[in-house]
Design goal:
The protein has helices at residues 33-41, 47-59, 72-77, 84-88, 94-116, 120-146. By secondary structure, it is mainly alpha-helical. It has two domains: 1-42, no CATH class; 47-146, no CATH class. The chain is elongated, with a radius of gyration of 23 Å.
Length: 147
């Protein structure tokens, strides 16, 4: 199968195979076949690869010290730990602290996953930034635990 055989209209997704002119017969959008072939040949990371990378980077730094803790509370907090920093800002208000940590975790993970699944370079950049953020969070959580 050639690159031209798999071309689709960028507006309506009509199959442009075998057309003699550079205009979509379905919606009338003009296109450049060479540019469209280049654009459609750029591969995106698979969604599950991006998801695994985001989860490993978000939870990896916490995995370096939580298994060695005696406090059972850290195992209960494990799902919302990526949002620890935002919850720690509201420390005196305990129920609100956990809600903020959970909401921040959902926003961080879903945003990182969305961005990481766009392009391979975005996956690498998001993974590096998320690993840095999670390391900062893990250090803060470990310091809070030691107090």
């Amino acid at each position: 199968m050639t690159a031209a055989a798999s071309l689709r209209c960028p507006k309506c997704r009509y199959d442009l195979t075998g057309l003699s002119e550079s205009r979509c017969p379905e919606c009338g959008t003009a296109f450049d076949p060479a540019a469209l072939a280049r654009q459609q040949s750029i591969r995106r990371p698979r969604w599950w690869i991006a998801l695994i990378a985001v989860l490993v980077c978000a939870y990896g730094p916490f995995a370096t010290w939580i298994p060695f803790q005696d406090h059972a509370v850290w195992w209960k907090l494990w799902p919302i730990l990526p949002g620890f920093f935002f919850g720690a800002l509201l420390h005196p208000r305990e129920p609100l602290e956990f809600i903020v940590m959970g909401a921040a975790t959902v926003l961080i993970l879903s945003g990182a996953w969305y961005l990481a699944a766009r392009r391979w370079w975005a996956l690498a950049l998001v993974s590096a930034l998320l690993l840095l953020w999670a390391s900062f969070n893990a250090l803060g959580a470990y310091s809070a635990m030691r107090m």
